[in-house]
Amino acid sequence: MVNKQTAEKPDLHPILRTVMLVPAGNVASYGQIADLAGLPGRARLVGKMLGQVPEGINVPWYRIIRSNGQLAFPPGSRHSELQTGLLQQEGVAVIRNRVKMRDFGWQPSLTTLLFELDY
DNA sequence: GGTGTGACAACAA
DNA sequence: TTTGTTGCCACAC
Asked: What is the pLDDT of residue A43?
């Protein structure tokens, strides 16, 4: 069977495809994305890539935060305000530049991964 | 091939 | 909770 993501975004880097799997209303950490993308230990690469996402493609960069729940951008910065707004729109509570991973952290089921990630 | 750099992570105080 | 330190690894010089 042809995987949906692969069929529609064949040239997209695994990291970005993985980011697109994070559902609205949830957040994931850089390390988690790296792991799921098959690149354990490369959380920093995830950040680097998100900073270079070409315009026009729909990647929910704002759902990716640090493993401790903090937003990666400095509090009060324009980026963090934007990120906060986008998350709040989805129902994710952002308090003092941080999110409760306990409540909003993404925990994909094995079947989700098997169906959506095809590589 | 050494050195510095990241939208990080884990851990210690 | 906040700050510092160390580990991490691909990349660009």
From this structure: 92
